[in-house]
Structure prediction request, 220 residues.
Amino acid sequence: NAGVTQTPKFQVLKTGQSMTLQCAQDMNHEYMSWYRQDPGMGLRLIHYSVGAGITDQGEVPNGYNVSRSTTEDFPLRLLSAAPSQTSVYFCASSPEGHFYEQYFGPGTRLTVT
Amino acid sequence: RKEVEQDPGPFNVPEGATVAFNCTYSNSASQSFFWYRQDCRKEPKLLMSVYSSGNEDGRFTAQLNRASQYISLLIRDSKLSDSATYLCVVQFRKLSFGAGTTVTVRA
Prediction:
C-alpha cells in the first residue's frame, strides 16, 4: 500500500493564480481531510469528506474548494492564490469509525509570492 | 483562547534521560485525547491514545487529568530517535491540534 500520496511536494505560485493539490489514498478509507500547518499554530482543518460525494467545511475554508468523486481521491483547489495561503498542506484519511486515527500524506509546501 | 495549548519547548535532554511535558485544553466536554509525533519536515503520525486511566506504550506514558484539563506525555530512557515534535490532539466533534512541543535528545 502506498498509503496517502500528495502531489506536488513543492509549489510556488504568484498571487491570483489557481492550482489543484492532489491527494489519493489506497486504504479504502471513507474519511478524508485537508489541513494547513503554519509556524506556531496547530494543524487547521480546511475541508473534509465523510465519503464520495459528500464534503463539508472545516475551520478555515475560505479560498479553497474540494470535491470527492471517488473514495480514493480528494483534491484541494486554490481559487485565487494569496500570500496568506503560503503554508504546508497535509491531506489525511482515516478508517470509518476511527476518524481520530489520521493517516497523513507527506505534505505539499506552497509558497505564494 | 486556543483550544489546545502546548509549551513549544524545545526540551533538550541527554540520551537516557526522562522528559515530560503537558498540554492543556479549553473545552471541558472534550471526549478523546491523543498524542501525535511529527519529525522535522515530515507528516504527523499517531503515537498513542490517552485513556482516562493512563496508559503506557513501551517507554511512553500518557496521562489525562480531566479536572485540570490537561494531558501529559512522559518519555523514559530517551533515545536519539525520540527527537521530534509531539502534537497534542483533542477531540470534540472534530480534532483540535496543538502547535506541538519539540524534544531534542542529544548524545
Notes: The two ends of chain B are 38 Å apart (CA to CA). The longest strand of chain B covers residues 84-92. Chain B touches chain A through 22 residues (CB under 8 Å). Chain B has no helices and eleven strands.
